[in-house]
Amino acid sequence: MQRNKSTPNDSRDYDKTEGVITILGDPKKALVKLSGPMIISMILMSLYNIVNAIWVAGLGGDALAAVGFVTPLYLILVGLNNGLGAGAASAISRYIGANNKKSANNAAMHTLVLTMGISLIMTVVLLVFLEPILVLFGAGSTLDLAIQYAQVIILGTILMLFVGAAYGILRAEGDVKRAMYAMVLSSVVNMVLDPILIYVAGWGISGAAWGTFISTALVAVILVYWLFVKRNTYISFSFKDFMPDKTITKNILGVGLPASVEFLVISILSIVLNAILVMVAGTDAVAVYTTGWRVVMFAMAPIIGIGTALVTVVGASYGAKKYGTLSMTYKYSLKIGLLVVAVTSILLYVFADYIAMLFTYSSTSAYLSPTIASFIQVMCLFFIFLPLGAMSSSVFQGVGKGTTSLILTVLRELAFVSVFAYTFSILLGWGQSGVWWGIIMENLFGSIFAYIWARLYIKRLQDSSKLDPQLKAVTLNK
Length: 478
Prior knowledge:
The chain is mostly helical.
């Protein structure tokens, strides 16, 4: 990794990597440069989820439904993975923006310690209570298949959370290329292993889970080598630099926990929607929703990539107290995001039938094809306002206000979508299509609300920079 020496008159004289120079430079260039690798990474990871569903579809509709009932549990782990990464990226990038390398190093060590502790607790709790959890989720006749799949996923919790934290640390210092390499490797290995383990080895649905476990373990080993053996990152890792600090812990968890809970909220939403779908259309509707949502997540990958990069750039601008730069970066991210979703929506609508066929090649699942295609076409409307909500949440994560981001998610995912989905599907009798339209209306109102809140907050930041210094701290803490 290329490094440049800081100026001699800098009291904190240390080497700055190319990534650090990028995030402290032109924010537009930084956003584009960081977004590119992140978009590629997210697309490949989402593509893996689609390929995984395609191979599982060959096992029949029950297998697809079983994965659907495990999805809420998996989302909790993904939430912790992304949450710890977001917390690390936000806290460390703010310290980098403030030119405080010592605290940046300490924040990285805090992230790893927190990750190990949370991983162990989650693994034990989930394994002990797995069966009743899946029963609660509505697994029913697919319980045995769901348990086979979930047990392996849970065993990989410590690997998954470590990888997420490591990605966050690399993103914080602008080293998105190596994060991309690791994500790409994980996705490719996973896609190669799935058919081998599911069909050649005859492991069935558990083979899909073992593919995830093995690929994650491989990436974890590579990340350990980069961070602790090769040691060519801007952040330094050493337990001698680790000093327990409540402020640093608060900065990490202040974003990390709310970000993790956001996925818990999404997980709860999946349970609610699954229950409504079973009520109005049976388990086939769950298979349609779970499968179609993988396509939606794939199409959302560029927006997620831009939003992930935005957290780092906003964090650095906030740490340096460059609020005008922060505002400009936010607006620029919205322009890019809106352009991306326009193209995405058109492509999905045109090719929906062909995409659905990928998941219904088996004679036991072919009857689901028209419904999956219909779901995908309806979801094209979901993307229109997506950048407003996604980028606004990234801004709040970047400045360390994870709770605000969580509130926005709760309003969108639970308050809005639950009400709309229940009203349309049950009260108005629209059936499963009512759930699809409930998701669209949720995104419409939730994203507009998030956008207004973000704009007002950024304006207040800019106004506060003009206040007397003694009043500024009070204003920013409100």
